[in-house]
């Protein structure tokens, strides 16, 4: 039995609280795998797949940035949104990209919002099944 715990919290509620053998999170600069006994850390998340693996299955979710903390075999993920990967389609990713590219860029703050939307859509495209 695994002693690694994964807790995912969004602004609305605790979305996930499960035990796992391993967890993979999308950091803003690459993926990181976490096993039981991992050193404590805090990291900034990017857009991408959160994979929670048990002996019998792997559950995968799309997360939209946030932060991860690892401490005493508890992986705490704070993110804006958690969506099962099975709900992310190629069409939804394509629609998100089209909407992002159609955003205005007339002001500097518009460019920041558009860049984040494009990054999110690119991550959705990578994980779409």
UniProtKB/TrEMBL annotation:
<keyword id="KW-0813">Transport</keyword>
<comment type="similarity">
    <text>Belongs to the ATPase epsilon chain family.</text>
</comment>
<keyword id="KW-0406">Ion transport</keyword>
<protein>
    <recommendedName>
        <fullName>ATP synthase epsilon chain</fullName>
    </recommendedName>
</protein>
<keyword id="KW-0375">Hydrogen ion transport</keyword>
<keyword id="KW-0066">ATP synthesis</keyword>
<dbReference type="GO" id="GO:0005886">
    <property type="term" value="C:plasma membrane"/>
</dbReference>
<feature type="domain" description="ATP synthase F1 complex delta/epsilon subunit N-terminal">
    <location>
        <begin position="5"/>
        <end position="81"/>
    </location>
</feature>
<dbReference type="InterPro" id="IPR001469">
    <property type="entry name" value="ATP_synth_F1_dsu/esu"/>
</dbReference>
<dbReference type="InterPro" id="IPR020546">
    <property type="entry name" value="ATP_synth_F1_dsu/esu_N"/>
</dbReference>
<keyword id="KW-1003">Cell membrane</keyword>
<keyword id="KW-0139">CF(1)</keyword>
<dbReference type="GO" id="GO:0045259">
    <property type="term" value="C:proton-transporting ATP synthase complex"/>
</dbReference>
<keyword id="KW-0472">Membrane</keyword>
<dbReference type="InterPro" id="IPR036771">
    <property type="entry name" value="ATPsynth_dsu/esu_N"/>
</dbReference>
<dbReference type="GO" id="GO:0005524">
    <property type="term" value="F:ATP binding"/>
</dbReference>
<dbReference type="Pfam" id="PF02823">
    <property type="entry name" value="ATP-synt_DE_N"/>
</dbReference>
<comment type="function">
    <text>Produces ATP from ADP in the presence of a proton gradient across the membrane.</text>
</comment>
<dbReference type="GO" id="GO:0012505">
    <property type="term" value="C:endomembrane system"/>
</dbReference>
<dbReference type="GO" id="GO:0046933">
    <property type="term" value="F:proton-transporting ATP synthase activity, rotational mechanism"/>
</dbReference>
<comment type="subunit">
    <text>F-type ATPases have 2 components, CF(1) - the catalytic core - and CF(0) - the membrane proton channel. CF(1) has five subunits: alpha(3), beta(3), gamma(1), delta(1), epsilon(1). CF(0) has three main subunits: a, b and c.</text>
</comment>
């Amino acid at each position: 039995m695994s002693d690694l715990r994964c807790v995912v919290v969004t602004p609305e509620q605790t979305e996930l609280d499960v035990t796992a053998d391993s967890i993979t999170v999308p950091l803003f600069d690459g993926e990181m795998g976490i096993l039981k006994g991992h050193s404590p850390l805090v990291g900034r998340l990017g857009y991408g797949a959160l994979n929670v693996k048990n002996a019998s299955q792997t559950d995968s979710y799309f997360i939209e940035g946030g932060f991860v903390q690892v401490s005493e075999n508890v992986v705490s993920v704070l993110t804006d949104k958690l969506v099962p990967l099975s709900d992310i389609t190629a069409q939804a990713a394509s629609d998100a990209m089209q909407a992002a590219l159609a955003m205005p860029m007339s002001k500097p703050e518009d460019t920041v919002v558009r860049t984040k939307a494009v990054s999110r859509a690119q991550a959705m495209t990578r994980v779409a099944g």
